Amino acid sequence: MHIRGDHAELVVGGRLDVRSAADARTVLHSAVDDGVGDLVLDLSELDSWDATGLGVIMGVHRRAGRCGRRLVLRDVPPQMQRLLVATRLHRILAIEGGIGVESLPRV
């Protein structure tokens, strides 16, 4: 897993899973704490995430809200869009461009 960027926009790549969750949480929480306005996570380079990785995203979402910021997901890969829809988290998280639920293949 790799994360690059600043306190306003970060690109997350690789796998966001149980092995990388602690490091990702540290980097993402620092970005929330050090910035103002929206924090954009570009997920175009993300290969996969598991429940732990999704938990990290939700934790960052809550922390951003407490800091008066908003977490925005950008370029969410289709596989991960399906997971957000299945868990109904697409209704809670800010997703740039939204998710076309009707265009996602059924699993």
Automatic annotation (TrEMBL):
Xref: InterPro entries: Anti-sigma_ant, MlaB-like_STAS, STAS_dom, STAS_dom_sf
A Pfam family matched in the record: STAS_2
Residues spanning the membrane: none
SUPFAM superfamilies: SpoIIaa-like
Gene3D superfamilies: STAS domain
Domain STAS: 1-107
NCBIfam families: ant_ant_sig
Family to which the UniProt record says this protein belongs: Belongs to the anti-sigma-factor antagonist family.
Family matches, as PANTHER family: ANTI-SIGMA FACTOR ANTAGONIST TM_1081-RELATED, ANTI-SIGMA FACTOR ANTAGONIST TM_1081-RELATED-RELATED
UniProt name for this protein: Anti-sigma factor antagonist
Species whose genome carries this gene: Streptomyces pseudovenezuelae
